[in-house]
Design goal:
Chain lengths: 267, 185
């Protein structure tokens, strides 16, 4: 009899994992442009990348880094039913990094016989979650979703790793991706090469073909992965890891995920 | 007997100074039967075997704001300013990545206005960037992109400087017509 609530609790805790079946994506209108040109970016969450049929992505944690390393604000940001959208004028020459960064802690426990759930961060954890909560379970997540746009000559002023969570470091130029050519990227976890990481790649246009056609690759010992593109278009590149490197001792597990959208041009 | 040996020797000597080496390029812009025609943007450059740019030769684009159809008010962009013709330069995708994006437009001796249908001749000799090229195998690359149209790239491999006068020709299929190169020693 006592077992049922426990099962429910486990189910509740595992919900966030199930929710990851939906993929977050950013869809830039163009990524290779000249100075002063505009791009517009859609952001959503759906079963298949770039298919606007589920939920808009919240833009609260949108961070746009300009080529000189400064942070710039998007324009005309709005959130619709199926996708959010914003515009960005590339006023500086170089490469912009557009990122949605979600970091946080999730806790669940039992209070007066009822399950309680909480979301927050390391700073508010101590004051908002009772220290001696019954059946306390805490997990941490660090998610980073990015795309890039380059005006004129590319640079790496916006591409410096933050050293937190899972990140991508372009080895081949991010503005020089062409079908029929290989591209190399490095994945970093907390700023260090992420070896043996599973990387999934999905090309845009899943709705108009019978198979998703995802590719699975693995990073090598240096965190490097070599991708080859058969066809031009937007590509969704994603990876995630789980480990025990958490920011509060109560959290037993951290899930770090990274997703990038890159544009591959025809040669 | 001696004379026979002398001739090739003289020819070799003649090739050494390479003072009059010249590259003639002819690019044909084809007549297209389309409702809305805009002249293509065309870039011509010389590529090394590793595909890096050895020399930019020419870029034809809408240099003047407002463009060649001026008469009425120039087209205005979303920012309220007249639209710059450089907006479509990234559509010359290979040229852009190989070095077009490093240049500031308009560029002296390089950029000029878009050209009408027909064959357009250009000559590059002592005064061109080709004069400084070390001898080797190169590719002449011509890329064309047209607003509301397509994009095409045609290339021709040649030796520079040429030992003998050489003529090469390639035929574009859509945005380019005949591309001819004459390399003179």
């Amino acid at each position: 009899m006592n077992r049922l609530p426990k099962l429910l609790l486990i189910a509740a805790v595992s919900v966030p994992v199930a929710a990851n079946a939906h993929k977050g994506w950013l869809a830039p209108s163009k990524t290779v442009l000249d100075v002063d040109q505009w791009i517009t970016v859609d952001a959503g969450v759906s079963t298949e990348p770039f298919v606007r049929d589920h939920n808009a992505m919240r833009l609260d944690n949108l961070v746009i880094v300009a080529p000189d390393g400064s942070t710039v604000a998007p324009e005309n940001a709005s959130t619709g039913k199926l996708r959010s959208t914003f515009d960005l004028q590339l006023k500086q020459a170089g490469t912009y990094r557009v990122a949605v960064v979600n970091e946080g802690l999730m806790a669940s426990w039992e209070e007066d016989g009822k399950p309680k759930r909480w979301r927050g961060n390391a700073a508010t954890f101590a004051s908002e979650v009772p220290a001696k909560a019954k059946g306390l379970k805490v997990s941490e997540s660090q998610g980073r979703l990015e795309t890039f746009a380059t005006a004129g000559k590319p640079n790496d002023g916006a591409l410096k790793p933050t050293g937190k969570g899972l990140e991508l470091q372009p080895v081949s130029g991010i503005a020089d991706l062409f079908a029929g050519e290989d591209a190399t990227f490095r994945f970093l976890l907390d700023g260090k090469p992420a070896a043996n990481l599973d990387v999934e790649v999905i090309r845009d246009g899943t709705r108009y073909r019978n198979a998703i056609g995802e590719q699975h690759l693995k990073t090598d010992a240096e965190g490097l992965v070599k991708l080859s593109w058969a066809v031009p278009g937007l590509h969704w590149i994603s990876a995630s890891v789980q480990d025990g490197k958490t920011s509060v001792p109560q959290a037993k597990e951290r899930r770090a995920s990274y997703t990038a959208t890159v544009e591959v041009l025809s040669p | 007997m001696k004379r026979h040996h002398l001739l090739p020797l003289l020819a070799a000597l003649g090739a050494l100074p390479a003072q009059a080496a010249q590259l003639d390029v002819s690019v044909q812009i084809p007549q297209l039967d389309v409702a809305e025609y805009h002249r293509p943007y065309v870039a011509v450059w010389v590529e090394r075997e590793d595909r890096s740019v050895a020399a930019h030769l020419s870029v034809w684009y809408q240099v003047k704001r407002g463009g060649p159809n001026a008469g009425g008010p120039p087209p205005v962009g979303a920012d309220g300013k007249p639209q710059s013709g450089t907006k479509w330069l990234p559509d010359l995708r290979q040229w852009w990545r190989r070095g077009g994006r490093d240049l500031s437009m308009p560029a002296d001796g390089l950029s000029s206005a878009t050209k009408p249908v027909g064959s357009h001749e250009q000559s590059f000799g002592d005064q061109s960037p080709l004069a400084a090229l070390p001898p080797g195998r190169y590719k002449l690359v011509v890329e064309a992109a047209r607003e509301d149209g397509g994009r095409e790239l045609v290339d021709l491999a040649f030796d520079w400087p040429a030992r003998t006068a050489t003529r090469l020709e390639a035929q574009g299929k859509s945005e380019l017509g005949a591309v001819r190169v004459a390399v003179k020693p």
